[in-house]
Amino acid sequence: xxxxxxxxxxxxxxGQRGVFDYDDDFNKNISHYINVLGLHDFVSKNGLDYAIxxxxxxxxxxxxxxxxxxxxxxxxxMVMTFDEPSSASDTRSIREFFSYLQRIKREKVIIVITxxxxxxxxxxxxxxxx
Length: 130
Hints:
α5 links the parallel β1 and β2 (109-113). It contains 6 helices and 2 strands, in the order ααααβαβα. The model has no long low-confidence stretch (mean pLDDT 84). It has helices at 5-10, 24-36, 40-46, 61-75, 91-104, 117-121, and strands at 79-83, 109-113. It has a two-stranded parallel ribbon with strand order 1-2. The protein has one domain (5-121): P-loop containing nucleotide triphosphate hydrolases (Rossmann fold), CATH 3.40.50.300.
């Protein structure tokens, strides 16, 4: 969305105060997820109030995909769904992301929708829909 990273993280919230209480715990958690996704340099350079252009003129497709993944991780729900999480991402970022999912999978239901054969290798169960 043509808004700040912070707004994109909070998108879809229906509560009054927002999903996140932008406090020390939030900052600690988001910093962790930013590192997991390989967004540290991007966010350090631009900040969470950086406005993302919808037409990709100031943000790569991979960075936008990571911000979408970051939104799911920050909400820390029991069920997490990721649609093509490896799309437009580099190999290292994909490996770090799936490695992180491996660490939390005992506590969550994680659904990954993908065509990526490498991403499928990280999954415990693969259901193919023809």
